[in-house]
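Weekly modeling sync, notes
Attendees: S.R. (lead), two postdocs, one rotation student

Agenda item 3: backlog of single-chain predictions. S.R. asked that every request posted to the team notebook include the full sequence so nobody has to chase files. The rotation student volunteered to paste the first one in as an example of the format we agreed on. Action items at the bottom.

Example entry:
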Amino acid sequence: MTSTATIPQRIINRYDGHEHGALLIALGGMHGNEPAGVKAIETVFEMLAQEPSKNSNFRFKGRFLGLRGNLSALHAHCRQIEKDLNRQFTTQNIHRLKKLTRNGVKI
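Predicted structure, as returned to the notebook:
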């Protein structure tokens, strides 16, 4: 059976405050079988959309950006497609990245 569902978009939503401030990035769904983070981020955006009408003193400074992590795995409702992302934080990989940054490579 072939799924007709489309792969979700990376950006969940974005909320811009009226004043300059920090950028907060929330990332959910690093593993496709763990959709709770994406749902939580969606709930925050729903609350942010309603808050100004409920609270006249509401002020938001900066920008909030919600992102989905592993799009293919989320679409397939499975933990991973090729690699378990949690298993990529090895001492060897961390040293390799540190070496790259010391050599001027931007990551």
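Discussion: group reviewed the output briefly. The chain has three helices and three strands.
Action items: rotation student to repeat for the remaining queue; S.R. to check formatting next week.
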